[in-house]
Design brief:
The protein is mostly beta strands. It has helices spanning 35-40, 123-133; strands at 3-8, 14-20, 30-32, 44-45, 51-56, 62-65, 73-77, 85-90, 93-99, 114-116, 137-140. The radius of gyration is 14 Å and the shape is globular. The chain binds zinc ion.
Length: 141
Amino acid sequence: MKRQLRGSCHCGNISFVFATDKTDSELPKRECQCGFCLRHGRISTSDPDGELRITVGAAEKLNKYRFGHRTADFYVCRDCGAVPVVTSEIDGAAIGLVDVRMIDGFPWSRTDTASHDREGEEVNDRLARRKRSWTGTVTFE
Ligand SMILES: [Zn+2]
């Protein structure tokens, strides 16, 4: 049984359970340098062997924002503006990320993060990288 990390957007309309065997310090803390993630101060984490369950309360308050290559859905809450999860569909299956800032009580720190500039990455390379590193099992409620 994996440990379960719970989190949500600020108002709680988009919530998630991230199940992982990794410890807090083992989980990566990635700061993507794209314009969207910079603007939101995103710090993403994932576990390829983990599981992510996403629950959306009022569907009309969810905006799945896409940009650039349009291969990822950023779950933006229309009410509170937070972006707790990101999903991407590869070979018909969803993989995902959560923002460590949205995990209840998660002890992240600025000194702990790694910066990643993906500018210029080819789409196929990007999808292959995501498949290796993002949380491999995503379910929706
Ligand atoms: Zn919200």
